[in-house]
């Protein structure tokens, strides 16, 4: 078997399919929907996705980064497993972002805020395409990675620092849980 199958599409990106069982996925989706989700706001723009942060919150209207409600107990088991996957201490994952993408929602090109280091995402409900790009002298290098339901991805190192990522708008609902660590201890 060729070693190329073990080479990530983008350096620093690791993925794993079937990270959860179908029953775990259904339970997490129910918990997310029972959480007080709010429309995502970026300056004067309101997005089609609904979000809620635990641990730390970043307000895109004011630029304020501050502590918020602690990560709830129902997220702790999946946080522990996500940390183990990424080779991190579970206590390093200090932020959890819940997102529900309703039909037509996606995320435009961006890098996560510089205060964050590792970004670990869990994809739930329906498949999505995660795109990556980095600027070159003439244009962009681009890659796309399918995110199947119950899969996990981790962004660290080069993909975290040198690449932007986005989620293509979908026509079916999708949920995600993103755990983040703080860079240099915050």
Question: Could you give a short account of the major beta sheet?
Answer: 7 strands, antiparallel
| CATH-defined architecture | Sandwich
**Could you name the CATH class?**
Mainly Beta
As a percent range, the share of strand residues is over 45%
Level of helix content? 10-25%
Q: Name the average pLDDT.
A: 89
Care to describe what's here?
The chain has 186 residues and is of the alpha+beta class. It has one domain (13-185): Jelly Rolls (Sandwich). The protein is 16% helix and 46% strand. It is built from three helices and 13 strands; from the N terminus they run βαββββαββββββαββ. It has helices at 22-34, 76-86, 157-162; strands at 13-16, 38-42, 45-54, 56-59, 64-67, 93-101, 107-110, 116-124, 128-136, 139-147, 151-155, 164-167, 174-182. The strands form three sheets. The chain has a seven-stranded antiparallel beta sheet with strand order 1-11-8-13-6-3-2. The radius of gyration is 16 Å and the shape is globular. The protein starts with 12 loop residues before the first strand and ends with a strand. 31% of the residues are buried. The model is unreliable at 1-5 (pLDDT under 50).
Offer a concise description of the structure.
With 186 residues, this protein is of the alpha+beta class. The protein is built from three helices and 13 strands; from the N terminus they run βαββββαββββββαββ. The protein has helices at 22-34, 76-86, 157-162; strands at 13-16, 38-42, 45-54, 56-59, 64-67, 93-101, 107-110, 116-124, 128-136, 139-147, 151-155, 164-167, 174-182.
């Amino acid at each position: 078997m060729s070693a190329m199958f073990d080479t990530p599409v983008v350096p620093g990106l690791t993925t794993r399919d079937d990270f959860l069982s179908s029953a775990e996925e259904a339970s997490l989706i129910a918990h997310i929907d029972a959480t007080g989700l709010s429309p995502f706001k970026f300056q004067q723009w309101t997005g089609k996705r609904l979000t809620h942060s635990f641990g730390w919150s970043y307000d895109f209207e004011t630029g304020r980064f501050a502590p918020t409600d602690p990560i709830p107990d129902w997220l702790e088991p999946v946080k522990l497993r996500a940390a183990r996957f990424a080779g991190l201490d579970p206590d390093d994952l200090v932020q959890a972002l819940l997102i529900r993408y309703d039909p037509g929602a996606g995320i435009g090109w961006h890098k996560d805020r510089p205060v964050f280091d590792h970004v670990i995402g869990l994809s739930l409900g329906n498949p999505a395409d995660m795109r990556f790009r980095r600027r070159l002298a003439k244009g962009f290098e681009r890659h796309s990675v399918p995110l199947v339901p119950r899969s996990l991805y981790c962004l660290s190192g080069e993909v975290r620092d040198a690449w932007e990522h986005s989620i293509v708008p979908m026509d079916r609902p999708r949920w995600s849980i993103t755990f983040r660590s703080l860079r240099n201890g915050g």
